[in-house]
Amino acid sequence: MIPQAQHRDFLDPQMLVRLSSIPLYSRQAMLGNVSGMHASPHRGSSVEFAEYRRYVPGDDLRRLDWRAYGRSDRFYVKEFEADTNLRCHLILDTSGSMGYGSTAATKLSFARRIIATLAHLAIQQGDAAGLTGIGETITETLPPRRTPSHLRVMFDVLQNIRPGGGTQLVQRIHEFADTTRQRALVVIVSDLFVEPAELRRAIDHLRFCKHDVAAFHLIDREEIDFTFSRPTRFVDMESDEYVFADPNDIAPQYHRAMTEYLTSIRQMMLESAVDYHRVITDQDVEIVLRRFLVGRAGGRQAVAETSPIDSSSVGGVG
Amino acid sequence: MTFLQPWMLWALPLVALPIIIHLINQRRFQTTPWAAMSFLLAANRMSRGYAKLRRYLILAARTLVVAGLIFAVARPLSSGWLGTTIGSRVDTTLILLDRSPSMGQITPGGRTKLETLTRRLVESLNTIRSDRYVWIDTNQDQILELENPEQLIELSAADTDAATTDTADLLETAAKYIRENQPGSVDCWIVSDLRRSDWNVDSGRWNAINRSLRQISQPVRFHLLTDAASAPDNRSLRVQSATVASAANGSDPAEASGAGELRLSFTIRQVGVSNNESARRELPIELDLNGARSKFNVRQTGDLTEINQWAVPLDAGQRTGWGKLSIPADTNAADDEYYFVYGSPVIRKTIVVTEDAVDGDTETARPLMLAAGISTTPEIRCESVAMTPNDLAKADLDDVALVLWTGPLPPKSTQALLDPFLRRGGRLICFAPDSGGDEDLGISWAGLSWGEALRHESDVQIGRWIGDHDLLSGVRSGASLPVGDLKIRWHRPVLGDQIGLAHLPDGTPIIARSIADTPGVYFIGTAVAGDQSSLARDGVVLYALIQRALADGADTLGLTQQLTAGQNQSGTDTWQRLTGPNVGRSTTYSLHRGVYQDDDRFIAINRGESEDIEATVSNDQLDHIFAGLRYDRIENVGGSTDSLIQEVWRTFLVLMMIAFAAEALLCLPRIRRTSAPPSGGRVTGGPSRGPGSDPKGATA
After folding, report:
1. Of A151-165, B632-646, B665-679, which gets the smallest average pLDDT?
2. Alpha carbon A67 to chain centroid distance?
3. From the CA of B57, how many Å to the nearest CA of chain A?
4. Looking at residue A315, what is its pLDDT?
């Protein structure tokens, strides 16, 4: 159960209960400083057998496998996987465009639910979770911690985040990669309205630093369907500039541009081995997260395309 | 474009309504905050050209819809040159029909020109509408107010007369009607095939008529509905003379006993056939002689076939009678038959009035007496006598065919003595007097008078003359009279309302015919003396014109009269039709071809000689006639009787519907990709490239 103090409107206790049965796994080895449930590149004392290696002087004699000695007359040391904890960095795009929502729910509110749930799940299973808000600058930074009190702080920050201004998502991800040297699961929750090529360089930067990268690409239904009919003055949520347009005139071109963009982003994510999830904000957040968690628990490099319109389509991202 | 409800056009500014609504709508936009701005900007850039075009097309379509509706309600008339000439509803429509024989030419539609044009006019008038329709017919001297245009057909106005139409007279009467009745606005429709014989464009009357029409204060528009196409493959038959001769020796049958024979001279003129073989074929001629019909063939010899003295045996003792020659029907039935009467030839008497000597043995009178006294054929006797003006009062003019006046014009009292003679059909030729100074300059006769005498230092030749009809027409073979060879050294210009038959190079009329009520009066502006002209020395022209005038005058004498339709319109009440088309009433018999009997007189009525000439009025001449007037010419082609003017509101409604459909199509929302690839996982469309620019950067 969630402590009463941690109750927030973006957190659904029932959903947490249902999702808590699915662990949040990293897809690659982590370098935690405490024991945990995640694979470590180091050999440790877990129950998972890793390999045999030849004995070298200095090794602990207790770890010699006498049975192997009996069979082969040679000294072998039996090594086990080291389990460690996970550092989960949750990156939230706080730019003005995240405040858009054709219904009551905005992209930011949807992102809050994803981040809060993931943070809760991570801390609940003993991992550390941190939060970084990115707008034009890095607006909020909470380093990963494992304590439940940290969760409350994180929720407070999430609750106080307001969308606004432009974004320098690409630059801030580079900064993040530069400053975060320890391996971590980096979860980016954004509408990704950036140049795909530049975003790719930022993602590659993260991957170079051995981070496990996942991305929730939030898109509002209206942004895809573009079902306006009357002449409309569209005001940019980031710069307050506006464009007057007749949707009937520009809808085909808009759809074409949007399709090209989404195709490009998805292709880029595939090539960069990012656990990529495109999410329409009218989807059920539990389904989205369940697919995310199940996909990772399966140890597969897969991306669950979580659209309820075409839920069967699942594409791997490596 | 002209409209029957032009006031509806005041609503035309409503065509701006769609544009105004569009502009207002643009001001009533909704404002939406938007995140995916970069794609919007890209789409806006990509669709700018088409979107603008589409918007303009929609606006144009909507404007067309409103305009089409307004135009349709305004009841537009057929567009083009005709539509621009027809105005709104007029007060009075005057209808002037050319009903001359040439209008009997069959059109491709199987109807005569007159019927075709009249039906077309009726259809058009039914469309245009007018408060009053007035048909003016000067041949029958009537002005009829019609209840509706169809009455023109019911009244047989679409039937041709045998009389030549005096178009100038029609227009003069129209002008008089307008002045007397003061209608608000007038449309004057003239239906004609533009034959020169009907228009007399050389007449000096046209200037006066033009002035008179221009002085009318009411707005008058003249519409000339014409079909001047020549008759293809048409022949015209004309009897030149029908005389009775003794079968034995050809002497005067009146003095001989026993059977005589009818000597017929006639011509067949072929028009519009270039093939010589067809022009030379045998042509069947039907002769109806006193009701007995017979046929004989003649061989055509080209464009003009002339048969002289064709002998037809007569019963013993038969000295007078009537008949008709006809050829097979062709494109104009009006000139395929010719009626004639025959009888003992009358003596063609001429009186030469001269002040010098009663015996006429003077330089002035003698050439005239010789020209009038020598007959063209042995069967006809010609006599000429000379007398002074004083003796003329005591002379018996009943059997005189021609009077040649050589002195100054007489006073009115003397002129009155000749009125019965002229009304009977006698001919009068006045030569310019060279004596008596200029004291008679103020006197006129039949509307003509003399100008001041002018002597030329050298001979002046006649510059132009009318050589296709009247006294100076060419000979039957087609050759012209040598009028141009005449030399004039002294002349007096002919003044007054006239038809100039010959003019000097400076345009001065030298031979003219009066157009006054008294027909058959000619003025020759020189004399026959050797020092004044070569009329006597080169006597061919003088002889021809005197003999022609004499023949015309003699036709009205005796028990048989050969008349041109429309020339003698009085006293026809007692006429009985013997043969001819059963048209008209007894009061109009003189207008219709046929043979009539008045007591013991036989009268043949035929078309005038000028009707056989196909020359038409030129555009320049028409422009001169209607100079300064609102005039348009409507050329009728083919035999269609459809209305010249049609309401085209249906066309505008169709255009409106098309504009409606176009607007609806343009306004249809574009078919969007319902697969919504971006929202699903299957992103299939589009090349794999970015949106073109940094979306964030674009909106930053």
Report:
1. B665-679
2. 44
3. 13
4. 32
State yes or no: pLDDT of B675 exceeds 80.
no
Look at residue A100 and tell me if it is in a domain: yes
* Residue A37 is assigned to a structural domain of this protein: no
Per-residue pLDDT at B674: 46
C-alpha count within 13 angstroms, C-beta hemisphere, residue A3: 10
Which residues 94-113 of chain A have a CB within 8 Å of chain B? 95-100, 107
For residues B495-515, give the mean pLDDT: 86
Q: Supply the pLDDT for residue B231.
A: 74
What is the predicted pLDDT for the residue at B252?
A: 52
Residues above pLDDT 90, as percent of chain B: 15
Query: What pLDDT sits at residue A186?
Result: 93
B665 in A contact zone (CB under 8 Å): no
Cβ pair B184, B144 in contact under 8 A:
no
End-to-end CA distance of chain A: 34
Q: Given an 8 Å threshold on Cβ–Cβ distance, is B700 in contact with A198?
A: no
Residue A258 tokens read as 């949007």
Which residue of B674, B679, B682, B684 is the best one to mutate when testing the A interface, meaning the one whose CB has the most A CBs within 10 A? B679
For A296, counting Cβ atoms within 10 Å of its Cβ (0-12 exposed, 13-18 middle, 19+ buried), the class is: buried
Instruction: Give the span between the Cα atoms of B263 and B313, in whole angstroms.
Output: 9
CATH of the domain at A161: 3.40.50.410
Is A136 among the domain residues?
Answer: yes
If asked whether residues A69 and A134 sit together in one domain, one would say: no
A243 interfacial to chain B (CB closer than 8 Å): yes
Using CB atoms, pick whichever of B25, B685, B695 lies closest to residue A193.
Answer: B695
Q: Does B22 touch chain A (CB under 8 A)?
A: no
CB pairs under 8 A between A and B: 196
Looking at the fold, whether A169 and A252 belong to one and the same domain comes out as yes
A150 plus A247 within the same structural domain: yes
Chain B residues whose CB is inside 8 A of the A269 CB are: none
Residue among A154, A173, A167 at smallest CA distance from A98: A167
Is there a contact between B35 and A263 if contact means CB atoms under 8 Å apart?
no
A59 and A177 housed in the same domain = no
Same structural domain for residues A104 and A213? Answer: yes
Name which of B23, B26, B30, B40 to mutate to probe chain A: the one with the most chain A Cβ atoms within 10 A of its Cβ: B40
- Domain extent, residue A264, equals 5-25+85-298
Please give the Cα distance from A285 to A116 (Å, whole number).
Answer: 11
- When the pLDDT of each residue in chain A is averaged and rounded to a whole number, the result is 81
Give the model confidence (pLDDT) of B201-240 as tens digits. 877 788 889 999 999 888 898 988 888 887 777 888 999 8
Residue of A94, A172, A260, A306 to mutate for B, most B C-beta atoms under 10 A: A260
| Angle, helix B37-73 to helix B17-27, in steps of 10 degrees | 150
**B7–A contact, CB cutoff 8 A:** no
**ipTM value for the complex:** 0.76
A16: nearest Cα among A112, A93, A100, A116: A116
Find the largest Cα–Cα distance for chain A. Answer: 85
pLDDT value at A310 more than 70: no
8 A C-beta contact, residue B234 and residue B335? yes
Would you call B688 and A194 a contact, using CB atoms and an 8 Å cutoff? Answer: no
**Total structural domains within chain A:** 2
**Structural domain includes residue A30:** no
Q: Is B54 touching A (CB cutoff 8 A)?
A: yes
Q: Could you count the other beta carbons within 10 Å of the beta carbon of residue B91?
A: 16
Q: Are residues A138 and A106 in the same domain?
A: yes
CB contact under 8 A, B33 and A98: no
Q: Which residues contact B469 (CB under 8 A, 6 or more apart)?
A: B197, B608, B609, B610, B613
CB under 8 Å to A283, separation ≥6 — which residues?
A306, A307, A308
Q: Are residues A175 and A61 in the same domain?
A: no
Would an 8 Å CB–CB cutoff place B317 in contact with chain A? no
Whether A111 and A235 map to the same domain: the answer is yes
